[in-house]
Amino acid sequence: MSELKKLEFVGREEHLNRIISLVREPNLHVVLVEGRGGIGKTWLLQALQSRLNQVQIGTSEIIDCDTPVFNDAEDLYTQIAKQLYDSTYKEWLLRLRQLREDENRLSQTAYEQERRQLEKFLVDEINRKSRQQRLVFLIDTVEKLGRPELREEVWEHLGDLCHQLDNAVLILAGRPSIARQILENSFQEDELTYFELNEFTHEDVQTYILCKEEQLHFTLGQDLVKKIIILSGGSPIMIEFGVEYAYREVIPDWLESEDIETLPGRLQKAGGFEAEMVRHITQLQTSMDRLTLLLSRIYPLDSSDIANLLEISTENAQKLFIDAQSYFFIKPVMGGYQISLHDIVRDLVEKYVWTDIDPDQEWRKRDSRIAAKYFKQKDYQLGPQKRILEVQRSSDDSPKVANIEFLIEEVKQLREFNTTRWLWNALYADLTIGFETWYQVTNTIRTQAKKFSFVNQLLAIAKQFGKELNPDQKLQLVIFESRIVHALKGKSTTEHEVRKLEGILSKQSSNSSHQADIYNVLGILNTKLHLYDEALKYQQECLSQVQGKKLSSVIPAVANQVGYLHRRLNNFKEAEKYYKLGWDAAMEVDTPDKGLTQVMASIQNNLGYLYGLQKDYVKAEQCFKAAIDMWSSVESQREIADAEIASATISVNNGNYVKAKQLLERALSRCNNEENDNRILCRAYFQLGLNQWFDAEVVNETLWDVTQVQWDLNLLSLAQDALEKSLKLAEKYGIEEELPGILRQTASVYWHLGFQRCDRSLQKQALKLNDRSYQTSLEYNDTRYAIDSLVGKAEFDYYAKAYERISDYARELSDRFQSYKNIHQLYFGRILRIEGDVAFQEANYDFAFSKYAQGIPKIFQDGGFGPYSSQHELNLLQKKIERLPIELSKTLIQQLKSQWNDHKALKEWCDQQMFLTRIRATKQPSSHV
Q1: Using an 8 Å Cβ cutoff, are 736 and 531 in contact?
Q2: Each residue of 183-214: b (16+ CB within 10 Å) or e?
C-alpha cells in the first residue's frame, strides 16, 4: 500500500501561492486559516510545509493541538521550543516546570512577571534563530488549544507573543473559534491575514479525483465518480473516503449498486453520506477497524500502546502502526512517534459508529478498563526511573546535572500524561471505582506534590463526567475544587466559592456525611479572606461535627485551627482551651502516625507562642522544645524552623536579642529552596530585622524625649536589609498575613535611618510604607497592625514636629478602634503618650501629664517591647520630670499618683520619683526652658 499517499492540495493552489507570497512580507505575524471539520486545513498545512521547505524558508513540523497535552499557551510554546535548538528546548522545559510549581506559591503579580520572563526567553530564542532565515510555525487544530475556560486567555497570550517576533510567522489552522475576533483586535491589517476554506465545486472535485487516479494508477469509473461528486458535497474528507475505499477494493455495496437517483433517499434515512462512509470502517473486518475504534477514544498511541490495548503481539502492533499511517484519516503526531485519528473522523465515529455497535457502552468500558490498568502500570513504572535519575543528579558532576534535570523533567511530563489517561479511563470504565481512584490520586498530588496546575487538569477530567456523577460524588468534587481555590486563586474567586458553599450548606440535611468537610473548607476560605470571625464560626461547627462522630484522628487538626483563630481574634483563654482540647484528643491515639505527630507538634508550637504573648516565658520555652523534638522525630526540617522562629519572636519581645538571633540564623540554615521555603524565609527575615532594629538602640539613661534616641547605624542597616528581604518574599509569594507587619516595621526602620542621617527621601519612603501598612491592614482585617500603623503616623509626625495632625490620628483611633482598647492597650497608651509629649514640648504641662496619667498604665499593663517597653517609657518620663522646676515636679508627680491608685507598682514609682525630686531640690534647679 506504499503508493497510497495523500494527494497534494488540488484545488487550493490559489491559497497556497497566496500564503507563500504573504509569508515573505516583513510585517506579517499571523496567517489564520479557518474552515469546518474535514475541509482540508491539515492537508493545506502539509502542502505548505513541503513548498516552504523547497523555497528555503525555515518551516516547523506541523504542531497539532488535537492532543490532550495542550492545556494552555505554554503547552503550545513547548512544542515551538522543540523546533528551535536542543539547548532552548531543555532550558524551556526546566523553566516551565518552575513556573508551574510557582503558580500556587507566588502572588498573582509575581507569577505574571515570571510568566512574561519565560515568554520573553522563548521570543528571544525564536528571534535569535530567525536572524539566519525567515521562520514559519505550522499549527493545526487550534480550536482545541487550551482548556475551554482558558481559551480566551490563551489566545491573548499567543497574540502577545506573535507581536514580539522579528522574522517569524505563525500559520494557524482550525475550525471557527474565538481566535479570529481576538487576533483581529490585536493586529493591524498588514500583520494578520485571514483565509476561510470552503467546499470544492463540482469541477474541483472532478479535478481532484482525476489527479488521485493518476497518482494511484487506477480508475474509479464514471458512475462512481459522479456519485462521489454529488454525495460528498465538496467535502475533501468525504471525497477521500470514497477514493480510498475504491482503491482498497472495500467500496460499500450500496455505493456501487444503487442508482444515483435513489441514493439520497436511502442516505437520508441512515444519517447521510458521511454517516454511512464512517460506519463502513467497522466492516473492514481487520485489525485496522479495531485500531480506528480505539483511536476514536484513546489517543495518541505508539506501537507499544497498540500492542497492549489491542492485546496483540509487539511485531503485529509495529506493523499495524506503520500500515495505519497509509490511511488518510490517520495522522502522525508528536514527531511521528505516535498516531491519532483525524478529529472529524473521531467525531463521526463517536456519533454514528459507537451508538450502533455499543449501545450499552460495555465495549467501550471494557477498552477503558484495559487502558486504565495499562496506563496505571506505565505511571508506576516511571516513578523508579525518575528516582534513578535523581540519584544520578546528586552524585554526578556539574556538567551532567543540567542534562539529568532535563531528563527528569521529560519523565515528569510523561508521567503526568499517563496519569491523565489512567484516570480518564478509570472514570469511564466504572464511575464508582473510578471516582474513588481519581479522588485518591488527585488529592495525593494536591497535598504532597502540590502541583496545582496539574491538579486543575485532573479536575477538568473529572468534570467531563459531571452529568453522570451521583449527588454525593458531585458534592465531593465541589468541596475538592474549593480546596484548590484556597491554595491557588484570588480574592474574588475565593469569595464566589464561599457563596457557593454556603448555598450548598443551606440545602444539606443535618446528618450529611460531607457537612463537616464543607464547614472546614468554609473556615479555610474565610481565613484566607481574613474574615476570622466567620472562619471561627465554621471551624467550630466542623469541630462539633467531628466530635459527634468521634473521629479522634481528625479532632486534633480541627481543634488546632479553632485555637489559631481564637488567637488571631485575641481570645487567648479560648485559644488555649482549644489547643489543649486538640492535644487531649491526640493523646487518645495509641500509635500516632506522621500526620498526627505533625499536628501535635503544631499544637505545642502554637501553645508556646500563645504563652509567650502572655509573658509566660518558661511555659513558652517548654512548648517550643516539645514541638521541635516532635518535628525532629519525623524529620520535618521546615516545621522545626517554624518553631525556632516562633521561639525567636518571643525572645525578641522579651529583649533577649542574642538568643533570638541564634534561633533565627538556625532557622534560616534549614531553608535551602526559596520556592518551597518562602513562608519560613519571609517570617525569619522579618523577625531578624525586628531583632536587629530593637538591638540597634544605643542605651542612654540621660534622654528625656524619643527623638533623642540614637541608633547603631550598622545594626539598623542590617535590620533594613532583613526586612526588605522579608517584604520582597511577601510580595513575590503573596504571603498576605505577614505583609501588614512587615510594611509597618520596615517603615519604622526607614524612618529612624532617615531621621538620624537627615535623609528626607528615606523618611518619605517610610511614610509611604506606613500608609501601605495601614491600608493593607484594613483590607486584610489585621486590627493590630492597623492600630499600630495609625499610631505610627502620629509618631512620625511628632518626630517631624508636625504636631497639628496628631490629635486627628488619636480621634481616628478612638472612633474606629474603640472596641479594641482593652486588647491593644500598648498602642492606645502610646498615642496618649505622644499627645502628652506634644503638650510637653509646648510647655502645657498639666495637659501633658494628664495624657501620661492615662497612657502609661496602658503601656505598663501590656509590658511593651523593644523601644516601646514600659520601662523605656518610664525612664523617659523620669527624665522629663527632672527637667521641670522642683515644685511643679512635685505637683505633677502627686497628680500621677492620685490617678494611678489602682496600679500599685506605678504608685511606688511615683513615690520613688518624689524622693528623687526632693534630693534634686538640695542640689540644683531645673534645666528645662
Answers
A1: no
A2: beebbeeebbbebebebbeeebbbebbeebbe
Tally of CB atoms within 10 A around 86: 10
- In order of 15, 210, 431, 848, the CA distances from 51 in angstroms are 12, 22, 49, 91
In the chain, the amino acid numbered 246 is A
What are the residues whose beta carbons fall under 8 Å from the beta carbon of 27, sequence distance 6 or more?
Answer: 188, 190, 191
- Cα(102)–Cα(923) distance, rounded to whole angstroms? 69
8 Å CB contact between 219 and 213: yes
Left if phi > 0, otherwise alpha if psi is -120 to 50, otherwise beta: which for 911? alpha
Contact 648, 663 (CB under 8 A): yes
Contacts of 915 (CB under 8 A, 6+ apart): none
Q: Which residue has the higher pLDDT, 98 or 69?
A: 98
HSE of 272, CA atoms in CB hemisphere, 13 A: 9
Rounded Cα gap, residues 225 and 275, in angstroms: 19
- Match 473492514 to its residue by C-alpha cell: 284
> Nearest 5°: phi and psi at 711?
-125, 150
Question: pTM of the entire structure?
Answer: 0.80
Mode of pairing for the β-strands spanning 330-333 and 168-174: unpaired
Q: Is the dihedral of CA 303, 305, 306, 311 positive or negative?
A: positive
Average pLDDT over every residue of 515-521: 94
For cell 484519516, name the residue: 329
User: How far is the CA of 87 from the CAs of 84, 93, 804, in angstroms?
Assistant: 9, 10, 64
Strand order in the sheet with 58-64: 58-64, 135-140, 168-174, 30-34, 192-196
Long-range contacts of 521-527 (CB under 8 A, 24+ apart): 521/479, 521/482, 521/483, 521/486, 522/498, 523/561, 523/565, 524/483, 524/486, 525/482, 525/485, 525/486, 525/494, 525/497, 525/498, 525/501, 526/498, 527/565
Judged by average pLDDT, the poorest of 149-153, 448-452, 620-624, 871-875 is 448-452
Which whole number is the average pLDDT over 541-561? 93
The whole-angstrom separation of Cα 172 and Cα 155 is 12
Cα distances from 613 to residues 575, 601, 910, in angstroms, run 12, 19, 28
pLDDT in tens, 318-359: 999 999 998 888 988 877 789 999 999 999 999 999 988 899
> What's the gap between Cα 347 and its chain centre?
34
Question: Would you give the distance in Å from CA 765 to the centre of its chain?
Answer: 31
Q: pLDDT grade, residue 396 (50/70/90)?
A: low
Contact of 174 with 140, CB cutoff 8 Å: yes
Residues 6+ apart with CB under 8 A from 832: 810, 851, 852, 854, 855, 858
Written as nine digits, the cell of 471 is 449527588
The one-letter amino acid at 177: S
Is the model's pLDDT at 397 over the cut of 80?
Answer: no
Candidates 848, 918, 842, 846; CA nearest to 876 is: 848
Please determine, for residue 291, whether its predicted confidence score (pLDDT) is greater than 90. Answer: yes
Which is more confidently placed, 132 or 401? 132
Cis peptide leading into 300, omega within 30 of 0? yes
CA distances from residue 492 to 210, 499, 528, 529, 579 in whole angstroms, order as listed? 61, 11, 12, 10, 32
Helix (H, G, I), strand (E, B) or coil at 313: coil
Q: Which region, left, alpha or beta, applies to residue 361 given φ > 0 means left and ψ of -120 to 50 means alpha?
A: left
- Please report, to the nearest 10 degrees, the dihedral formed by the alpha carbons of residues 119, 122, 128, 134 taken in order: -100
Please give the backbone phi and psi of residue 673, each rounded to the nearest 5 degrees, phi first. -145, 110
Query: Rounded to the nearest 5°, which phi and psi values hold at 670?
Result: -85, -10
The beta-carbon contacts of 702-709 under 8 Å, at least 24 apart in sequence, are 702/879, 703/875, 703/876, 703/879, 704/876, 704/879, 704/880, 704/882, 704/883, 705/837, 705/841, 705/876, 705/880, 706/795, 706/798, 706/799, 706/837, 706/867, 706/876, 707/755, 707/798, 707/799, 709/867
User: Each residue of 8-39: pLDDT tens digit?
Assistant: 555 678 888 999 999 999 999 999 999 999 89
Q: Which residue has the cell 522574522?
A: 167
